[in-house]
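Two proteins follow. First one:
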Amino acid sequence: MRQALVVRGGWEGHQPVEATELFLPFLKDNDFSVRVEESPAVYAEASYMASVDLVVQSMTMSTIERDQVQGLIAAVSAGTGLAGWHGGICDSYRASSDYLQLVGGQFATHAAREEPGKRTGDMSDNYVDHRINLVDREHPITAGLDDFDLHTEQYWVLTDDYNDVLATTTTAVRPWGQWTRPITAPAIWTRQWGEGKVFVCTPGHRVEVLQDENVRTIVERGLLWAAR
């Protein structure tokens, strides 16, 4: 059996436990033995990390020690896959530039749907209608799928040109915003790092988004694609 490591925690609003539990049966059905950790400390265990075929990273914000991030990078460079969704992978460990380079993107913001005086202060303020536009329909992760619409957080991410972008999303101009033209950002991407593969899906704010047929299909395919 291949070895999958799930590292989860951080901000509870992203439901790290419930969200990862959604995919554990899928991993087991695909012949993965799964270990779950609530801290990135496991990344510093070099002998164990060498045996891991897939890391599912689901820890929003939080912190990571230098030996831990270097252990994760070493494992991915040697062939361990790294995969995740939403803030659990691209809003993790903000203080580590090495982690950000490995993942290839960092959450910047999500646009509010209402002007400031009309916001309620809860998460739904950031739920907007938006489209995920596929730009690579031949990749194993997206093959056979079409563009699709979501009503949830729309991530504006800062990324670099080393990513292989599979889908984008465009944040509209809003009268109360500071940007004056639509901004298109990657929504789904992959990245080769040494011998390892990285997969990121920015949709996935909460369980109900991950249960969307398109999002769940993309995440499940991404987990398998990234794995050694």
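Second one, unrelated to the first:
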Amino acid sequence: MSNIGYRVFLQVPRPDKALVAEYSKYCTGNITDNMSRFGAMHAAIKPIHRPGLKLVGVAVTVKARIGDNLLTHKALDVAQPGDVIVVDAQGDTTVAIIGEIMCQYARARGLAGFVIDGAVRDSLAIREMDFPVFARGVTPLGPFKNGPGEINVPISCGGLTVRPGDIIVGDDDGVVVIPQKEAKEILEKTRLQAEREAKTIAAYQAGDLSGRQWVDEALQKGGCEIIDAMYT
């Protein structure tokens, strides 16, 4: 009999490591552009670590009871090097799910980072240790360790469904969730867009400011009236 709500699944369908590593080359904005501008967690999920750190890894998911981190502790031992522990703490910010000690343990095990739809504590220590942590908030209040909860089941985090084995990318702009089944296609589209944008930026830096006709074309298509006069 399956004990729904209090289960730990040990196996994760993992994507190819080389595929995951390729995503470290690209920003979250370019990735979401190639997911029809979906795939980003809610802007409330913010980096707690110092600016400039990149998070890339494979999701190990946790469904937590509000104010309880027993299953998050278990996930630290279930996860493998390079994994990101993604916790559905139901958006609660009154109690921290992780702090410095758990981050130190995760880093020592080679994990890539945390994404918490909830709160963390020891934020200064986290910033100083250069370990990627994204969360909805910060509080000094610590959690209980009673359960129940689940590991490696589909969860909701930052308004998105996250499945075990999804690729997680985070930077200063936020967190993106890349479904494993579409990861290769999204990566190729992202690569091509990054190349196009690099050419555009190089042209601007060289003084070539052409290529802006699309703005007026879009306005005309939408029926915008352009008036060569002052508003009175």
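SUMMARY FIELD: The radius of gyration is 21 Å. The chain is about 30% helix and 25% strand.
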